Write the structure tokens for this entry.
Amino acid sequence: MSSNILGKISKERTISAVVIVIAALASILPGGIVLAAVLYVISVIGYLELTKACGVRKGGEKKLNALEIVGILAVTGYYAAIYIKHPDAGTLHFLPMIGFTVLDTGFMISLFLSLILMMSVYVFSFPKFSAHQVMTAYFSLVYAPVMLSFVFLTRQFEHGIYLVWMIFINSWISDTCAYLVGVMIGRHKLAPVLSPKKSIEGSIGGIVGSALVGALFGYYLDSVLGADQFVFLLFVVGGVGSVISQIGDLAASAIKRNYDIKDYGKLIPGHGGIMDRFDSVIFTAPITYFLIIFFMR
């Protein structure tokens, strides 16, 4: 019986993974409004998974509360701001002096307004919500929607149609390599209390594997684009990104442990929710974006 259940779960995970890859291709290749819309939907779902898991919405409540509604409005405003700023793929170039073009007025205003609106709900409905709920709602806004938006911003780079895939190399390739190496030679526990199956050897394997795949990808880009800069760049981005990816994976697991839940949701068969599947991507997206800017400028 158990083998049948495991087989069914494995089949579900495989089918879901294929669907996710197809969806990624269908949204990332065209970029622009298509990618922004897909990321917006994913971000809203991820935000609500977090608020529910972390107690912004009390157990048993089915309707969204005022803090969650403000959060959804904030996500909507934030994605509108970054899309209006960079509507078409290939428009975000590397600035020689500043580079951090994401830190523009619209970006900052949307984050500040979000906090002010949430605090307004807290004040005018007091004592309906606790300070913990308000802080968690804002944390959830930054954790999932804002950090995921860097997939869109990386895609908007010059050559972003290629560079954006480093986000997924840093997360999914790293995870695969870490798993394979851990199964083969893993002996020493990486985080024995939080994730007993992860090993230090597997972690190193993930870092090395991600860096090497990044370098190979960089070699391909150099040949396609007639450049000579991407091998080292993507080698470093792959290695550093893998470290951050593993932290993101463990961070999402730690939150689940704190709140005694198995999965964040049931949206993706065999995987769980958005936060279960994209936990490492959430962390690798911004670090990939900023590493590329740092090296390319």
Notes: The longest strand covers residues 195-199.
